[in-house]
Amino acid sequence: MKETSTVGLNRSLGLWSALSLVIGTVIGSGIFFKQASVLQMTGSTNLALLAWLLGGLITLADGLTLSEIGAQIPHTGGLYQYMTHIYGEFWGFMSGWMQVIVYAPSIVGSIAGYLGLLMVNFFGVSSFWKAPIAIVTIVLIAVLNMLENRYGATFAIVTTICKLVPIVVIIGFGLFFGHESALGETITSVHQSMGNFGVAVLGTIFAYDGWILITNLGGEIKHPEKLLPLAIILGISIIIVLYLGVTYGIFRSMSATRINALGENATAYFATSAFGVWGGRLINIGIMISIIGALNGKIMSFPRIYYAMAAKHQLPFAKHLGRLNAKTHTPVVATLTLLGLTAAMILTIDTDRLSELCIFVMYSFYIAAFVGVFILRRRHGGQPRGFHTPGYPVVPIFAIVGTGFVVISELFSDFTGAAASMVVIALGMPLYFYLKRKYRDTHDPDVI
C-alpha cells in the first residue's frame, strides 16, 4: 500500500471510544487476582477496601491534574508532548525514549506472555506454546490497529463490554447472594508478619495504571479539549467503582481466612462455588478477553509515541516511523516497530522484570507532568485554559504526593532497578544530541 508523510491522522474517536480505551487499557487481570494480596498486606478486609479506595483517589487526582494539561496540548504522543511543551525538547525526548525503547515493548510483552500462560493452562497444552501464543496474539491485534483507527476503537468497545460482564456478575452475586460477609474480619497472623498498608496502596495504584495512554491518541479524539478530560475522569471513576465492587462482592461471599488461603485463586474459587465448573471456566475466559482488551489499548496507543517523536526527527529512521498509511491514516511502520521489539523481548528476556525496571523513571515523569500544571498556569498569568482541575491546588498536590510515594517506594524496594532505568535514560542522551545536530536545520512539522 502506498504511504506518504503528508497524510494526517483521523480525528474520529468519540467519547465512547475514548472511554472504552481508558477502561479497557487499565482493566486487565489484576481486578480478578489482587484481592487476596491486598488483604494479606493490610491484614483486614476494611483496610483492604480502604487501600483500593485510596489508590483510586490518588489515580483520580492524577487524572484530574493531567486533564488540564491534555486539554491545552491535545496532540498525538501524550506525555512526550507534555514534557516537550513544558520543559523543552530534551526532557520530552527523554520521556519518549524510555517509553519507545523499553517501556512499551516490555509492558506489551509482559501482558502478552501472561495471556499465553493462561491459554496454555486453559487448553491444557505444553508450556512451549506460551511464547508463540503471545506473539500470534500481538500480531493479530497489531494488524487490526494498522487499519483505520475506528476498528481498534470498536474492538476496544466490544472487549470492554465483554470484560464488564463477569465483573458485574461478581458484584451482583456478592451484593445479593453473598452470605459469608468477611467485612470487618482480620487476619492476625498475616497482619503481624506481612501487614503493610502503604505497600497495599502501592499495589492498588499499579492496578489502576494505564489510563494515561489515552493521551497518546490526543490527535485522533474529536474535540479533545472537552472529550479527553471527560474520558479520563469518567473512566477512572468507573474503574474505582468496579474495583471496589469486585472486592466488596468477594468479601461478601467468602471469609477472610479462605480468601487469604486461596490467594490468586480466590476469584476462580468464588466463581466455581457460585456457578459450578462452567462458572470458573467462564471467569477464565473473561480474564483472557480482559487481557486482550488491555493489549489492544496499548498496541493502539504506544505507536503514536514513535510517530510523534519521528515527526520531530527524534528517532532513527524518522522518515519511515513518521509516515502514515495513505489509506488507513495509521502509523503502520511505528506499529510494526513496536511489534518487532516486543516479539524479540518475549523470545529473549524476562519482560516482567524489564517492565518493573521502568516504574521508577515513568512515575518520575508523571510527577514532572503534574508539576507542569503550576508551570502552565504561571505562564498564562495564573489562569487555566480550557479544562481546569477541580480543587486546584490541593488536587495536583495530592497527585504529586501520591505519585511521589510510588517513586520513593520503588527507590527503596528496588534500588538496582531504579538505577538500571536511569542507565537506559542516559543511553538516550548521545542519540538525542546526535539527532539534534543532524537535523538542526530541519523545520519540524507540527504533530496534531
From TrEMBL:
<feature type="transmembrane region" description="Helical">
    <location>
        <begin position="271"/>
        <end position="295"/>
    </location>
</feature>
<feature type="transmembrane region" description="Helical">
    <location>
        <begin position="100"/>
        <end position="123"/>
    </location>
</feature>
<feature type="transmembrane region" description="Helical">
    <location>
        <begin position="154"/>
        <end position="177"/>
    </location>
</feature>
<feature type="transmembrane region" description="Helical">
    <location>
        <begin position="389"/>
        <end position="409"/>
    </location>
</feature>
<feature type="transmembrane region" description="Helical">
    <location>
        <begin position="329"/>
        <end position="348"/>
    </location>
</feature>
<feature type="transmembrane region" description="Helical">
    <location>
        <begin position="354"/>
        <end position="377"/>
    </location>
</feature>
<feature type="transmembrane region" description="Helical">
    <location>
        <begin position="197"/>
        <end position="215"/>
    </location>
</feature>
<dbReference type="Pfam" id="PF13520">
    <property type="entry name" value="AA_permease_2"/>
</dbReference>
<feature type="transmembrane region" description="Helical">
    <location>
        <begin position="227"/>
        <end position="251"/>
    </location>
</feature>
<protein>
    <submittedName>
        <fullName>Amino acid transporter</fullName>
    </submittedName>
</protein>
<dbReference type="GO" id="GO:0016020">
    <property type="term" value="C:membrane"/>
</dbReference>
<feature type="transmembrane region" description="Helical">
    <location>
        <begin position="415"/>
        <end position="435"/>
    </location>
</feature>
<keyword id="KW-0812">Transmembrane</keyword>
<feature type="transmembrane region" description="Helical">
    <location>
        <begin position="129"/>
        <end position="147"/>
    </location>
</feature>
<keyword id="KW-0472">Membrane</keyword>
<dbReference type="GO" id="GO:0015179">
    <property type="term" value="F:L-amino acid transmembrane transporter activity"/>
</dbReference>
<keyword id="KW-1133">Transmembrane helix</keyword>
<dbReference type="InterPro" id="IPR002293">
    <property type="entry name" value="AA/rel_permease1"/>
</dbReference>
<feature type="transmembrane region" description="Helical">
    <location>
        <begin position="45"/>
        <end position="66"/>
    </location>
</feature>
<feature type="transmembrane region" description="Helical">
    <location>
        <begin position="12"/>
        <end position="33"/>
    </location>
</feature>
<dbReference type="InterPro" id="IPR050598">
    <property type="entry name" value="AminoAcid_Transporter"/>
</dbReference>
